[in-house]
Amino acid sequence: MAVNYKKCFRTYENERFDNKVTIVTDEDDDQSDYEEIAECVENPSEKEKKIQNKYTDWNKRDASKSTKSENKSKVNGDKTESKQDFDLELPRVQKVKHVKDVSKTWRTACLLIAFLCVGLLSVNGVLLWLMLSSKVSPCAHVPCFHDGNCSVSGEIAVCICHRGFNGLRCEGSPCDNLNCDNGGTCFLDEFQPKCACKNGFTGEKCTITPCSRIPCEHAGTCSVTGSNFSCSCLNGFIGIQCEIYEADFENDVGSMFIQDLSDEHNWTVHSNSTPSRLTGPSSAYKGDYYLYFEATSVTRRSVARLLSRDFIFESTGCLKFHYHMYGSDMGDLIVYQESRQIWRKAGDQGNQWRFAEISLHATTFNSSKISFEAVRGTGYKSDIAIDDVQVLLRGC
Q1: I need a surface site. Which of 65, 197, 236, 309 has the fewest CB within 10 A?
Q2: With contact defined as beta carbons under 8 Å apart, do 181 and 171 qualify?
Q3: Domain boundaries in the chain?
Q4: Which CATH class is domain 136-172?
Q5: pTM higher than the cut 0.70
Q6: For the segment 65-86, what is each residue's pLDDT rounded down to a tens digit?
């Protein structure tokens, strides 16, 4: 008789060994496929313990098949015991069904939990993506000018400038460091700062003005008006560049002439009419004063000579002046360049100012003076006057 001593459970034999297996609720599963062949023994003897399960060796199942059949017939013959077996099989079927249901339920629960976890992870991922994508970048409120690029360093927006621009937002232009003088305007030429100068101004920073080349001669003062220059000339000089020597006799004989001390008489600065009637001018040609030779109380052919400063004419020069020779006793007016006579006028020329223009010879490396010589005529009516005398170092 086989007895399971581990626990007090019945041991069963499978009716059809090949497929139909009965699961026994016994922790000792060595004989789970066998029919009950012994009752529960509470206190087995030593002999029974030794032969506690003769079916322990599974390979001896075929050898004991006849014995199992006899035991099966005996058991089936007993109605009470069959009824008892029937009662025992009922919870077995329920147990198998319960295990299958529980297994199916667990599988379903596991799948649901897995789907739920995947869904939660997906939702969290979507929410995280939305949070990150909806976060406003620091660059959104930091515009970078002049095509600068904004980048984020940590939580700080930084503008990356190029092409010479600078500043926190690339607002600084390369022109900020280039100061254009004289009203010049800075512009970018292929992203390089340059100055656009007004007319008449040149140079990298428009510093070269019309006055930079010192256009005013004879210590004249240059000033710029618009795109042109103008010269303020010292007394005794006129012209756009103060290049013309002038004697207008508004301030005595001026800086160009002096009296020749070797002659008989002098020239006189005067305004309005001369003291003698019917001779001389009534007013100056330019301004208020003119220079004249008074013929009264002097002898015939008396001379009054006016000498100029020294001039050097690198090329042909020019002498311009106005003269007045009115009177019936008129004498001569002669012009010399050094000792050479270059112009002469004699006799009455009428009561008016007349203009004379004379070419002067070149005197390279040699200085020469220009002199005016008035010669008295036959009587007092021979007053001779000159005004607005100009000497140019270039040709007429």
Answers
A1: 65
A2: no
A3: 136-172, 245-392
A4: mainly beta
A5: no
A6: 444 444 444 444 454 444 444 4
